Amino acid sequence: MSIYQAVSVIRHLLTSWNSAGVRTSSPFYYSLIHPVVGADHQQELTKASERLRDEMLNDRRLIRVTDLGTGGWGSRERRVCNIASKAAVSPRQGALLARIAASEMSDIPASGGVVIELWTSLGISTLCLTEAAPQNRIITVEGCPILTKLAKENFLRHGYGDIEQINADFSSALQKLKEEGTKIRFAYIDGNHTGEALREYFKTILEMAAGEITIVADDIHLTRSMYKGWKMIRCYQGAQLSIETLHFGLVFRKQSLISGSFRIRC
Question: What's the whole-model pTM score?
């Protein structure tokens, strides 16, 4: 953990509220915080992803990973187990992501918009989203061809061969989907950890929204740039309600939603 990240986390903990301390008349906020954000693990939503995590943590293969984001190391060999332990979404955050997706997508039919993920990696977080929204089209984007191939093998082995994969940089993938008329209902943004990139992806995804939309940005406290980007996107016109957690930045756009911006301890 960098010095900035440690300071940012401490600042968040000192300035955030627990759910009981937040003053708002928004029923949606409380329906989200208590049964979703503050809920227990809900293992039924993460069984597949945790099985895959266990497999990857025991996989010592060396693969050449190409980083199109801000990893700073370009292309080099890494062990699969190290990627699983250091780069994959944690069990706690994976479970939270799955609960949020399930809460938002449970009543959304296949025609109501897609679930998109920017950064597949090994596919652990992808399975969290797939389990949470089994009726919806899942699209996941990864810039590294080797990781794309490995994730495909993982999906097929676990019975999720219908997950759509795109091997491209995030901007190109979003532009292609936009030209095809793809409508997004739920988006999870990870990878390429710069505030400028976060703002770019956020703006494009909002333009592709299927009416209502939920966007989850990961690692908002990772760097000064990321947090600056998060502060800017939560002020966008399309961001009616924003909630900042210890790792995620959540943005919601819904009909009859009371606007607000909250910071909570979780």
Answer: 0.94
